Amino acid sequence: MYRDFEKVIGYQFKNTEYLTIALTHSSYANETREPVQNNERQEFLGDAVLSIVVSDYLFNRFHLAEGDLTKLRAALVCEKGLFSMAQKIGLGKQLRLGRGEELMGGRERPSVVSDAFEALIAAIYLDGGIECARSFILPFVEDFLSNTEETSFKDYKTILQEIVQQNPEERVTYALVGQSGPDHDKRFEVEVRLNSNVIGRGVGRSKKSAEQLAAKEALELMGK
Question: Annotated catalytic sites, by residue?
Fold first, then answer.
């Protein structure tokens, strides 16, 4: 029933009941004659799982003050951020909605879809554990960080470029030197080179993330 959607999210459930619940809005449950669980309880759990995964990732990736980490996490897990993530997997199309909610455009309503996204996180966590949930969440996080205009975290590539530009004859380039893993959980390895010399390496779930981590390593080697 959900095989195509499981391919989209990169996770196959052992117990699809968790997924069914995650996709069931309260409006659907209220209109069904037989007792049906809605996704509100899983949403509660998913919010907590999302918070710990994102917090752990930001803590280990960015050496920022507590206030800056909090701002960055808030940008990631707010309704707008979650709705954007959910749209990438077409979550709204999968929801079980009541007739009234359907007519009101519930499949495109940010509050409805973002809540379901948290319920989906809980479903993966309940079915496969924290590492499966982490593997699902982090590609969205890294994509957000690669494309966001937020300035509350360090853009290592820009910092490195500004340093190198002080010597006009020097040139920084990034080279993809390897990739591994299945399509839904790929790892990219990138080298950053000063002229022809390798000065840093990074591995990430996207090329942009790997480039940032390579630049970060280069800056650390420079004592920056």
Answer: 47, 118
Helix axes 40-61 and 130-147, enclosed angle (nearest 10) = 60
Whether 110 and 98 have beta carbons less than 8 Å apart is answered as: no
With both helix axes pointing from N to C terminus, report the angle between 207-221 and 156-164 in degrees, rounded to the nearest 10. 50
User: What are the residues whose beta carbons fall under 8 Å from the beta carbon of 209, sequence distance 6 or more?
Assistant: 142, 145, 146, 188, 202
pTM of structure: 0.69
CA separation for the pair 213, 77 (Å, rounded) = 22
Evaluated on CA atoms 110, 116, 117, 119, the torsion sign reads positive
Q: pLDDT by residue (tens digit) across 91-136?
A: 999 999 999 999 999 899 999 999 999 999 999 999 999 999 999 9
Q: At what angle do helices 79-88 and 130-147 cross, to 10 degrees?
A: 100
Q: How confident is the model at residue 26 (pLDDT cuts 50, 70, 90)?
A: very high
14 Cβ partners below 8 Å, 6+ apart? Answer: 127, 128
